[in-house]
Amino acid sequence: MTHQTETTAAISANNPEGLLDDWMPRSELAGIIGVSADTLKRWETRRIGPPCIRIGRKVLYRRGAVRDWLLDQESHKTAGRRRAGR
User: Fold this and answer.
1) What architecture does CATH give domain 3-84?
2) Smallest Cα–Cα separation from 41: which of 12, 61, 65?
3) Which of 81, 80, 57, 36 is nearest to 49 (CA)?
4) What is the pLDDT of residue 47?
5) pTM, whole model, 2 decimals?
6) What is the residue extent of each domain of the chain?
7) For residue 75, what pLDDT band results from cuts at 50, 70 and 90?
8) CB neighbourhood size of 35 (10 A)
């Protein structure tokens, strides 16, 4: 079992009613989007990354908020191209 899977399993075990089903730990998001957990931590500090919450030492990201953040990044890039092409 990988660390990411163990972390997700630990959260699920402590989450019998599915309260945190839409949330993932930093390590899981880092693996999904292909950046390090340290990069996500820096982005959080600079307020440029996806929104997150803290529960004690745990940092969690809501899947829907991450999708929205990714779409926003795409629209900013597209808008920048439109302005440059004028």
Assistant:
1) Orthogonal Bundle (1.10)
2) 61
3) 36
4) 95
5) 0.71
6) 3-84
7) confident
8) 14
